[in-house]
Amino acid sequence: MKRTVITILILLISIHLSNAQHGKVIEGLSMTSEILKDSVNFSIYLPPDYDTSKRSYPVVYLLHGYTDNETAWVQFGEVNRILDRDIASGKIPPMIVVMPDAGVTWYINDHDGKVRYEDMFVKEFLPYVESSYRTRTQKRYRGIAGLSMGGYGSFLFALKYPNLFTACAPLSAAIFTKDEVVSYSQERWDKTEAVMYGKGLKGKKRLTKHWVANNPLHLLKTLDIKKVKSVRYYFDCGDDDFLYRGNAATHVLMRNLGIPHEFRIRDGAHNWNYWRSGISDALTFIGESFR
């Protein structure tokens, strides 16, 4: 009988320790936006000790790619498993990770002001999350990252709102040069870019004021460099990724402008295998800022 009791106690302790090492993913959350006149869905990862502590935590906004949604980073990126592992090992500090749905907005306000995702994100979404969960609300404890369209969005937000973010880690960022945009097929333009910049535009007419105002390669040349430098940057793009031109051009321009950043080119393409293998180092880079 005594042996049975001891065995049960050991089993219960093992289960408790096992559960304690896992964070909590909550999906199906939403916020009502007055700016969008619609609800904004999001998923959130809470670190393993969130429910047992009274502490506030650093927060990372993790943005999805084109045609994905708020579930992608968990379902395909397995970011919760990676966070559990790296928090347990001490590689990164316990953090909250928020994954909003952006549809195919590219995280910006569209050209005619009908869908103002950027305004919603900054004016409504961040305040909503940070008043609903125990986050540290200073710039020092807020990071942003993303892949592809989300890599573009994360970099754009860091450039436009350097007062909000301490670190930014775009993976395979969808940054395009002027030459690339001018040479797009009409089908490509009308399918992916027209929703933000206008349908039917051809050649150099695509380089509208709105496009230029949301192009990181232009912003880097025009923004206050001191403010840009107040954010730490980490870029990662595969050597077989079709987005290599924009990422390489960003690296060269930032080097020429004297803006400190980390730039990684690894073996890989534009796919989840690449992003799963890179998100750990990206979050580690952001976590170093929190520490």
Give keywords:
291 residues, alpha/beta, 2 domains, eight-stranded mixed beta sheet, 12 helices, globular
List the helices and strands and how they pair.
Elements: H1 2-20, E1 24-33, E2 38-46, E3 59-63, H2 72-75, H3 79-89, E4 96-100, H4 117-132, E5 142-147, H5 149-160, E6 167-171, H6 178-183, H7 186-197, H8 209-213, H9 216-222, H10 225-228, E7 232-238, H11 244-257, E8 262-266, H12 272-290
Parallel strand pairs: 3-4, 3-5, 5-6, 6-7, 7-8
Antiparallel strand pairs: 1-2, 2-4
Helix pairs in contact: 3-12, 9-11
Summarize the structure.
The protein is α/β, with parallel strands linked by helices and 291 residues long.
Strand arrangement, largest sheet? Answer: 1-2-4-3-5-6-7-8
Oligomer: single chain
Count of DSSP helices?
12
Can you write the helix and strand succession as a string?
A: HEEEHHEHEHEHHHHHEHEH
> Low-confidence parts lasting 5 or more residues at pLDDT below 50?
12-19
Q: What's the name of the CATH homologous superfamily of the largest domain? A: Alpha/Beta hydrolase fold, catalytic domain
- Mind summarizing the main beta sheet? 8 strands, mixed
- What CATH architecture of the largest domain do you see? 3-Layer(aba) Sandwich
Strand content: 15-25%
CATH top level of the largest domain? Alpha Beta
Radius of gyration: 20 Å
Spatial separation of the terminal alpha carbons: 49 Å
Whole-number tally of structural domains = 2
CATH topology description of the largest domain: Rossmann fold
